[in-house]
């Protein structure tokens, strides 16, 4: 459970989401050319400050089913999500972003085609999310990232993902860590289906298997 249900849990959730989302935003390394400052609907409160993410993932509203969605932007009030199921302000939401991991919180803003997930997380978790999001922002904006995995490896704490073979077979996996050049994956019994040099795609990103370890494999991105 995200919150301690006391007095007015909806107000408490909104307050926590406001504080935690702002703390996450302030932990990001946002350069001027990363900001989306173009025209935006006047009713969107975060129009002046937002960064494009363009990440795939899945989300669940309250106790509903988990469905695929797009995570379009991050702003001081949270993550903007687009998907087939919308929500009401105050709805609980849990999301799993590719290469980032699980994010939980409440819906804080709704528009016609998307909604904003206000993040609720302990400080340690916020720091971890900020580190992963910073890496993604650098990659999306084509910044130079040192190829040395020992210095640029981002621990993912087994974030969920999927790996696809050249013949279209898709297997669930978990990401131990990731860098600009590759990733270490937990594959379980599915590890037996992969071979050294085999071309694969990790959540759509092409690469090749380069080594094995117990229950998993490492891939190098093309």
Overview of this structure, please?
- It is a single chain.
- 18% of the residues lie in helices and 41% in strands.
- It is α+β, with helices and mostly antiparallel strands and 222 residues long.
- The protein has 2 domains: 9-140, Beta Barrel (Thrombin, subunit H); 149-221, Thrombin, subunit H.
- Helix 1 (9-27) packs across helix 2.
- The protein is globular, with a radius of gyration of 18 Å.
- The chain starts with 8 loop residues before the first helix and ends with a strand.
- The model is unreliable at 1-7, 37-43 and 144-151 (pLDDT under 50).
**Briefly, what CATH class of the largest domain?**
Mainly Beta
Portion of residues in beta strands equals: 35-45%
Based on secondary structure, the structural category is: alpha+beta
CATH topology of the largest domain: Thrombin, subunit H
CATH architecture of the largest domain: Beta Barrel
Distance between the termini: 40 Å
Shape: globular
Provide the spatial order of strands within the biggest beta sheet. 1-2-3-6-5-4
Main sheet record: 6 strands, antiparallel, barrel
Rounded to an integer in angstroms, the radius of gyration calculated over CA atoms is 18 Å
Total of domains: 2
Residues in helix, %: 10-25%
Assigned CATH superfamily of the largest domain = predicted glycosyltransferase like domains
List keywords for this structure.
Thrombin, subunit H, alpha+beta, disordered N terminus
Q: Briefly, what is this?
A:
This protein has 222 residues and is α+β, with helices and mostly antiparallel strands.
């Amino acid at each position: 459970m995200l919150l301690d249900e006391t007095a007015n849990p909806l107000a408490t959730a909104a307050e926590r989401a406001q504080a935690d989302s702002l703390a996450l935003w302030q932990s990001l390394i946002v350069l001027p050319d990363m900001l989306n400052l173009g025209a935006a609907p006047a009713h969107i409160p975060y129009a002046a400050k937002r960064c494009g993410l363009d990440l795939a993932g899945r989300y669940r509203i309250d106790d509903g089913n988990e469905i695929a969605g797009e995570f379009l932007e991050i702003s001081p009030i949270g993550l903007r999500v687009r998907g087939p199921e919308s929500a009401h302000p105050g709805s609980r939401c849990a999301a799993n972003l590719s290469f980032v991991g699980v994010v939980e919180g409440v819906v804080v803003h709704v528009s016609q085609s998307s909604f904003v997930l206000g993040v609720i997380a302990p400080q340690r978790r916020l720091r971890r999310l900020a580190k992963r999001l910073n890496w993604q922002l650098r990659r999306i904006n084509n910044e130079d990232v040192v190829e040395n995995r020992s210095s640029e490896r981002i621990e993912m704490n087994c974030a969920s993902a999927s790996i696809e073979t050249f013949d279209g077979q898709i297997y669930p996996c978990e990401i131990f860590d990731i860098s600009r050049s590759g990733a270490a994956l937990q594959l379980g019994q599915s590890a037996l289906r992969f071979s050294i040099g085999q071309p694969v795609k990790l959540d759509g990103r092409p690469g090749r298997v380069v080594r094995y370890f117990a229950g998993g494999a490492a891939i190098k991105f093309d």
